[in-house]
Amino acid sequence: xxxxxxxxxxxxxxxxxxxxxxxxxxxxxxxxxxxxxxxxxxxxxxxxxxxxxxxxxxxxxxxxxxxxxxxxxxxxxxxxxxxxxxxxxxxxxxxxxxxxxxxxxxxxxxxxxxxxxxxxxxxxxxxxxxxxxxxxxxxxxxxxxxxxxxxxxxxxxxxxxxxxxxxxxxxxxxxxxxxxxxxxxxxxxxxxxxxxxxxxxxxxxxxxxxxxxxxxxxxxxxxxxxxxxxxxxxxxxxxxxxxxxxxxxxxxxxxxxxxxxxxxxxxxxxxxxxxxxxxxxxxxxxxxxxxxxxxxxxxxxxxxxxxxxxxxxxxxxxxxxxxxxxxxxxxxxxxxxxxxxxxxxxxxxxxxxxxxxxxxxxxxxxxxxxxxxxxxxxxxxxxxxxxxxxxxxxxxxxxxxxxxxxxxxxxxxxxxxxxxxxx
Amino acid sequence: xxxxxxxxxxxxxxxxxxxxxxxxxxxxxxxxxxxxxxxxxxxxxxxxxxxxxxxxxxxxxxxxxxxxxxxxxxxxxxxxxxxxxxxxxxxxxxxxxxxxxxxxxxxxxxxxxxxxxxxxxxxxxxxxxxxxxxxxxxxxxxxxxxxxxxxxxxxxxxxxxxxxxxxxxxxxxxxxxxxxxxxxxxxxxxxxxxxxxxxxxxxxxxxxxxxxxxxxxxxxxxxxxxxxxxxxxxxxxxxxxxxxxxxxxxxxxxxxxxxxxxxxxxxxxxxxxxxxxxxxxxxxxxxxxxxxxxxxxxxxxxxxxxxxxxxxxxxxxxxxxxxxxxxxxxxxxxxxxxxxxxxxxxxxxxxxxxxxxxxxxxxxxxxxxxxxxxxxxxxxxxxxxxxxxxxxxxxxxxxxxxxxxxxxxxxxxxxxxxxxxxx
Lengths: 423, 423
Prior knowledge:
Two copies of one chain form a homodimer.
Chain A: E1 12-16, H1 20-29, E2 35-40, E3 44-46, H2 51-55, E4 65-67, H3 68-71, E5 78-82, E6 85-89, E7 94-97, E8 100-103, E9 106-109, E10 113-115, H4 123-126, E11 127-129, H5 133-152, H6 156-162, E12 164-168, H7 172-192, E13 202-206, H8 218-230, E14 233-236, E15 241-245, E16 248-251, E17 256-258, E18 261-264, E19 268-270, E20 274-276, E21 287-288, E22 294-295, E23 298-303, E24 308-309, E25 311-312, E26 315-316, H9 321-339, E27 354-359, E28 362-367, E29 370-374, H10 375-388, H11 392-408
Parallel strand pairs in A: 1-2, 1-9, 2-5, 6-20, 9-23, 11-18, 12-13, 12-18, 13-14, 21-24
Antiparallel strand pairs in A: 3-4, 6-7, 7-8, 10-19, 15-16, 16-17, 22-23, 25-26, 27-28, 28-29
Helix pairs in contact in A: 1-9, 5-6
């Protein structure tokens, strides 16, 4: 049996996915008597909120990717398995991976979400998503390659196409990416390409809602739109994308933009493994769970994070990291209760607030009833994110990089670096 | 015309290759009146002496890769071109690249060297070279993948194969890699894989000479061999590799080693673009140059660094970074002399010494007539390399990483991270 370790008389808990939800579950469980097996297809945990800083040449990818085994070095009841889960047999309490079969007594499904192209023709082929570390590196390479090519391009229309970037989505990811992209271009790339006229650069943000950051109060969304417009971002509100070709994007308002780079920051759906028997799903293919986060009729199976449709006090969750972390804590506690023969308790989300960064010295946030924008929002965003980033070395190096980025207005990680695939 | 810039009345110097030699040439030339065009297939300069630290999970790849344009931000007579040079027409003074044709008045060929498998069957298919950043990342992924697979492998022979690493070559690269690999395994990986028995790990070094580091005095080579053997490295001296299969390597002494990872740190040859007319070559396909570093019969063309067969005071150079840097300075000076109608002067190498690092607190070196090993060698190696590394941020971050590595005996960059190829 793969992924096996000692103490066969103790129950075995398998956690699929080492994102915020799965990682927190496993970390909260290592103090228990159970045998823990954590499965992920990567050997690292990705700190997703900082992916946009990888894509915009601020941070080395490894700084926001923490080796999973390191977080569990002291745990003796823990086993990590780098594998793809292909199928879960809920009746037989077993899962099929590319490395073989694993059985469980309890299962936690925390497999997260994946990009959904909302039926837009050409999006799957031509858009650049930014949900994984590899995708962020690919986007970084694409942005830098466009400038290298534009520097040699004598045809003004071709050059304009290379220097036009279209961000689809006006949520936190779209806003953060837009702000960081402007700053990358305005200072470091302007200095790198003295022969290019940076007035030819265009950045569009296409937002289906009536303002950016619809999960925050309207005045913060309006503030964000104003800030981004001041930075030169062309924001199309109440607009959708109709289709993409290799060098254009067509909007629902009729405009056709000539561009080499469409960045997809809109639309995700749950990314569950194949389950048998099938489980009812809610919007975005999310697995429906009980208030205790257990699957209906499968009390030994939990689903948390972006893969689950969970509610707290009747309101659905919105898919941010604090929700996933808190669900991980709850599931670990509920599993410990079950191991003691007690009943699991409902999940209750404690909303510590929400933050989004727009750019240098500028962010927005809402904590309790208190809304704020500007420098305070920026500082709080940096503080919160560096606190949650795993690993002292990473924190130190990220702080140094931020000093470099924000004080000197420079970006260090501007290598077009595509590594070969593993053999 | 691509790669063009202002001042057409000034002569145009094209430098191919942004390694130590080409980079130094361009940097020394920007103070001249000439128009400089630097061409490289990457947009970054690779600090090759630290590649082994990328391969052994000590440093993020971006830390030893410096964006070329940043080094020339203040130069107005400079143009960088990210392109592949396909052919040089020495008669027409032009070169063909994948982006089009470029003409030159003066040309500096600094295209370096590439891995040579010395006719060993299977080496090209199965060995892991470590000459580029991408290859170093691939090697890092391979090493970490072997441990992940070994952790799940129940067949002891298969596991042994996964945990056996064979380094071909006992020069500085082979020695540094062997020491760093032992330390990676002995501390961080041992803590990461508590279920693996690290006594199953084997590291071989295959050296064709009678000791490692043949370019250093015999007593330092013997000291190095002793040190590595104390660390557990199995050194085969006076031994060559006969052939490789996907899971074995056969040595000239008859031994067949079962292994998943053969690392090729032996044998390079010059990597010149196709030249017409052809130019005489010396050993390892190196272009023969005059004492002034000019090609014979082509006084407006220079070849330097690993691509050239150059001598200093009658002795051939050995292919280390200080030689390349000093050649770059000489070529820039000779070009300035030529521009003033004066005669180029012969190259003379000033040997500042040689250093190699074996591992934590242990290195060897020779400066003038003074040979030394141990802590002093280690400290000098770190000092010299961090001094030559381009960029203040990189230096600071590398020093912090070294503290982390050498004091805490840990390695941070243990992500198995293969990025997709560029589109």
